[in-house]
Design goal:
With 294 residues, the chain is an alpha/beta fold. It folds into two domains: 78 residues, ACT domain (Alpha-Beta Plaits), CATH 3.30.70.260; 215 residues, 3-Layer(aba) Sandwich (Rossmann fold). It is 39% helix and 22% strand. It is built from 13 helices and eleven strands. β9, α11 and β10 form a beta-alpha-beta unit. It is elongated and about 65 Å long. The protein starts with a strand and ends in a 5-residue tail after the last helix. The relative contact order is 0.17.
Length: 294
């Protein structure tokens, strides 16, 4: 099987492409060794394909790309977005740019404290379910109106999110939002973006005030993976037809349940285990890895 090396970044120097052509031991095809991926209609950055590259050079390519702030991926020549059936995404710091719980905590004056716990949990340094309950407890007493303030004033989609979603819909790919955050936000995003499925945690609210507790079972790492597998089963999909995208340690199990895992501006533990990493482009970088239709 022929493998190509995809290089993506906001701006890519010609010399970097030439250097990577040599590092990747590429042989080109039909006299063409490097080609621009025609993605102007689909994504917001530059992307090039180095033809017939040697995947065994992955570590050398990785080091070069890290030094030069480039995203890369060795991709099968025939990989097409339309061959997929499901894209599963995390919400906080993946589909959106913020960690919602940190922003909610800002209204209590404890954002730094909560954010430190969030960061440690995403790095896989502390137990995630315990950390969530600990952080939610700090929200006790807040008015539920704070949730809407966070949604309206602070929540922003990640770069490239709308392009990825639009391309997926064109190819009839189902979209699953599975989050360790809260249903208040996932439900709104599901309706706003036309996503097919959304699962998350429910904050307990009594008399318009957050109690500092969550209701029911947590949407933790195991639950995220289960939602991916169950959704795939309903759709009759094989793991090879699924992409999972996330940034934190609690996304690793759902990535393992998917044929293609993508670490998005992710913690080191996630980048180390994911098949691909996107650290310099937006979510539309997913489209650069797969041939998109016209």
């Amino acid at each position: 099987m022929t493998t190509n090396l995809v290089i993506q970044a906001g701006d890519i120097e010609t010399q970097d492409l030439k250097n990577l052509y040599g590092i990747a031991q590429a042989k080109g095809a039909d006299g063409r060794g490097i080609e621009k991926i025609d993605g102007d209609r689909y994504f917001l950055h530059q992307a090039f394909r180095i033809l017939n590259a040697n995947p065994a050079t992955n570590e050398d390519v990785r080091r070069y790309c890290e030094d030069h702030k480039l995203d890369f991926g060795f991709v099968a020549d025939q990989a097409k977005l339309s061959d997929l059936g499901l894209i599963a995404m995390d919400m906080d710091s993946t589909l959106i740019t913020i960690e919602c719980i940190d922003e909610i905590a800002d209204f209590t004056g404890r954002k730094a404290e909560v954010a430190a716990v969030t960061e440690a949990a995403m790095r896989g340094e502390i137990d995630w379910p315990t950390s969530l309950r600990q952080r939610v407890a700090m929200l006790k007493g807040l008015s539920e109106n704070v949730l809407d303030q966070v949604y309206q004033q602070r929540l922003h989609l990640s770069a490239g999110a709308e392009q990825l979603i639009a391309a997926a819909k064109r190819d009839n790919i189902k979209l699953l939002l599975v989050s360790g955050g809260f249903t208040f936000f996932t439900d709104k995003l599901k309706a706003r973006l036309g996503l097919d499925y959304a699962f998350s945690n429910t904050l307990e609210i009594e008399n318009g005030v957050l109690t500092g507790r969550v209701l029911g079972d947590l949407c933790d790492a195991r639950a995220k993976a289960a939602h991916v597998r169950n959704t795939a089963s309903v759709l009759g999909l094989e793991p090879s037809q699924i992409i999972a995208i996330g940034d934190g340690a609690n996304d690793l199990l759902m990535m393992q349940a998917s044929g293609t895992s993508i670490a998005f501006h992710a913690k080191p533990v996630v980048r180390a285990q994911a098949r691909y990493s996107l650290s310099h482009v937006g979510l539309d970088g997913v489209l650069g890895l797969f041939a998109v239709g016209s």
